[in-house]
Structures are given as C-alpha cells and as structure tokens.
Design a protein that fits this description.
Blueprint lengths: L1 H23 L10 H61 L7 H5 L2 E14 L5 E14 L4 E13 L7 E17 L2 E9 L5 H4 L20 E13 L4 E10 L3 E2 L9 E2 L20 E11 L6 E13 L7 E13 L3 E13 L5 E14 L13 E11 L4 E12 L4 E12 L7 E10 L1
Antiparallel strand pairs: 1-2, 1-18, 2-3, 3-4, 4-5, 5-6, 6-7, 7-10, 8-9, 10-11, 11-12, 12-13, 13-14, 14-15, 15-16, 16-17, 17-18
Helix pairs in contact: 1-2
Length: 445
C-alpha cells in the first residue's frame, strides 16, 4: 500500500511541475526556451519515468510474496485442523471397549514352527549308520494381547545298535506352557516349563544348536519342570542395558525307582513312585529356582553385545523328602558383529543319597563359531561356511570325561543347514568311544 502512495505522489509532482513551468513561461515566451533547458527537463522526466516503472515492478513482486504467504498460512491452518481431528478420533478409538475375538480372528493367531534333524554317525570301532530322525514341531497360539500358549513335541526314530536290535520310535511332549503378559516387565507362565537354568535349553537346543549333539554337562540339570514362573526384563539406564529375571516353583527332580540312591535321581521331572509302582507326588515341598542376567550392548554397534547370567535351583528330590537336590549355572554369551559368537556355561549340582552320601557333579563347556562371510572374500561357497569349535567336560561323581569337537556348518539356505563334527573323547569310562564323526542335516521352519 505504501508503494501505491509513493507512485501517486510522484505523478502528482510531475503534473504540478508541468503546470508551474507553463505558468512561468507564457506562450509568447516559448521561443525563448533554450535547447539546454529543454534537454535537461526531458532527462528529468525520463529519469522519473524509470523510477516509476521500478516502483511498479517492486510493487508487483511484493504482491506476489504476500499472496504466497497467505496461501502457506491457509495450508498450515488446514493441516493443524486435520491433526486435531485425527487426535480426537484416535482418542475415541482407544477409549472404545475392546470387542471380543471372533472365531475367524482366533484361527488367524495360530502358528506352527519347529525343526527337523537327520543324523549319520561313525563311531570308533563300529560301522557307520544313520542314528536318528527327529521331527520337533512347536505350536503357538495367541489369544489376544495378553494370552499366549506354546507347546513343543519330539517325534524321534532312533537306531538302538549295538545295545539292541531295530529302531525305537518315541513321542514326547517337550514343553507346554500358558503365558499371561501383565505388562512390558512381567509375564506369568504356567505348565510344563522350559527352565531357565542357564540358557542352553531355552536358546540352543535342536536346530538352534550349531553342533549335532548337546554338551555333556547339561544332563546334570533338568531342562523342564511342571509348575509356575514369573519372568521379564527391566531396562537399566539409557544405553540399552537390560536386567533379565525369572523365578519359578516346580515339582523338580524325583526318583526313577522309588529309592533314594545315587542311581535313582531323575532330573527329567518324575516326582516319585509309590511302593506298588503308581505315579505320585511324594514331595512335601516344591522346588524353587530362578535366574538373573545382565545384557549389555558393546561399542555402540549393532549385534555387539555381552550377556552374563547366574541361575540356581534347590529342593527335595527323594520320596521320603530327606534329601535335597541343588544346582547352579553360570552362563555367558558374546557377540562381536554378525559373524562371531562365543558362549559357555559352568554347571554344578549336589544331591544327597541313601547309599553313598552327598554326590557332587560338575561340568562346563565353551563353544565358538565364526562365519567366513566376515572375511569379505568373493569366493563361491566360502561365504556360506561357519567354522565351529567346542570343548566340554563332565565330572559326574564316578567318571571324568573330556571332549574336543571341531566342525563346520554349511548354510544351504538361512534355514537349511548341513553340519559336520569330529569329536575326540577322553574318558575314564571304558564304554565311551575314543572318537566319532557325526553328520547332520537340519531344517528350521
């Protein structure tokens, strides 16, 4: 608006100047105007005309800028109104009561996962043969935001040679548990639980294990137990550290023959037998246990981390309730990028008996794997190979066994693995072989 006023004033000035010149020089005096004065006046008029055109251009640019700002203001106001409306709608949706799941929705929350393994073995002093075929499906069901159910089975066809003829087929319910998620930090589990004594049973068994067989010492502790458990994780600070915890009560180990001898201990969860051979829970009290672990990211890099955990379990095991079984596990796992992994566990157990007193058992293992893809070589096949090694030992109270294992894993796909291991065994038990070769094809689905 100020620019328009300036333009009007300039035009008025030009008209006034012209009138003044006309009044000062009457027609009779026009012949007296010199060329120099006329040219000066002409130049002044041209200069003022140029200024007028410049002001008009400036005014037009200002009008365009004002129009753009007004358009942006309208768009901003419209965006703010839409955001407010969306916020109100989201609040109304969250406040609305949750409708019950119908049958069609329930069926879509059901999944089947699992793995399958096939083994071939060549043991020192024996002919090579196929050892077993194992199919282990896991059924998962989600009944809403808070209810989970999972169950795992093992269908095993196993070669009995050289102890007996033929094959044996077994079907086992490995675990079955119902979970209720209270919040982000605590979950209640009940059923036949996978026990958090160390991490092998929960995270490394079956297809997840990079070796065809399990470490020797894991046989000292129960892998599952019937009971209830509270578990969860709590953040520690702002750097990704996490405290994992679990506490449980289960039936615990029992007697395989109703006695309290060292050979009667059954860590598989049998809770006792009556004198006539019937199953019965003869324990006076449940067995309690739990695990605490700290997960720590390293070097502010993805997949660089360390986890250290301590777990324990203690309770009655014999039918009379006069003997205790106690076990403890120290576990650790280290990842240095996507290509290197190392883990291990130290396992200790003690239990009382009627015939030999207190029995102490121990064992430990450490294993590592390196994927050759980390070498960044452009060679065929090599990037699909992972080299693995393991040392494990067992002191079971009667014999001492040390085992050295070297092998590799070839990833045909991310889910289809071919594993080959060669084991050297040194044991005071004369029935143990001195070496053996195990080949395995495994598939996770």
């Amino acid at each position: 608006m100020k620019t328009n006023q300036k333009t009007s004033r300039l035009l008025f000035g030009l008209v006034a100047a012209g009138c003044a010149l006309g009044a000062a020089h009457p027609p009779s005096a026009r012949a007296t105007v010199s060329d120099e004065d006329f040219n000066a006046l002409k130049a002044m008029v041209q200069q003022m005309n140029g200024q007028l055109q410049s002001l008009k251009a400036t005014n037009q640019a200002d009008q365009e800028i004002i129009g753009q700002l007004q358009q942006k203001l309208v768009e901003t106001q419209r965006t703010a109104v839409e955001a407010q409306q969306n916020s109100i709608a989201a609040t109304q949706i969250q406040a609305a009561p949750r409708a019950p799941l119908d049958e069609a929705t329930v069926n879509h929350n059901f999944q089947i996962l699992g793995d399958a393994e096939f083994q071939y073995g060549k043991t020192d002093g024996q002919n090579g043969s196929f050892l077993l075929a194992d199919f282990a499906p896991i059924f998962l069901y989600r009944g809403g935001d808070n209810i989970l159910f999972e169950a795992g089975f093992d269908f095993i066809l196993q070669n009995n040679a050289p102890n007996s003829s033929g094959y044996t087929t077994t079907v086992n319910l490995s675990f079955a548990q119902l979970d209720y998620v209270f919040n982000d930090y605590i979950t209640l589990c009940a059923g036949n639980l996978v026990l958090p004594l160390g991490t092998y049973s929960e995270r490394s068994a079956g297809w997840l294990n990079k070796f065809p067989d399990s470490p020797l010492a894991v046989g000292l502790i129960p892998g599952t137990g019937i009971g209830a458990e509270l578990r969860g994780a709590i953040p520690l600070g702002e750097y990704g550290n996490i405290l994992n915890y679990s506490v449980y009560g289960v039936n615990g180990p029992g007697s395989s023959d109703g006695l309290g001898n060292d050979s009667s201990l059954d860590v598989g969860g049998n809770v006792g037998l009556t004198s006539d051979g019937r199953m019965a829970n003869l324990h006076k009290n449940l067995v309690g246990g739990g695990r605490l672990a700290v997960f720590m990211p390293l070097f502010d890099k993805p997949r660089y981390d360390l986890e250290v955990g301590l777990s324990a379990q203690s309770g009655e095991w014999d039918n009379a309730g006069s003997h205790l079984y106690t076990a403890g596990v120290l576990d650790a796992a280290l990842h240095l990028g996507p290509n290197f992994e190392a883990k291990g566990e130290y396992i200790l157990s003690r239990f009382g008996t009627d015939n030999v007193g207190m029995v102490s058992q121990s064992g430990w293992f450490v294993q590592a794997g390196y994927k050759l893809a980390g070498l960044n070589l452009e060679w065929p096949v090599i990037n699909n190979v992972e080299l693995v090694g393991r040392y494990d030992t067992l002191r079971d109270g009667a014999n001492t066994t040390d085992r050295y294992t070297a092998g590799c894993v070839y990833y045909l796909t991310t889910a289809l693995l071919f594993e080959g291991d060669y084991e050297i065994i040194r044991s005071s038990d004369s029935t143990q072989p001195r070496n053996q070769l195990i080949l395995q094809m495994s598939y996770g689905f």
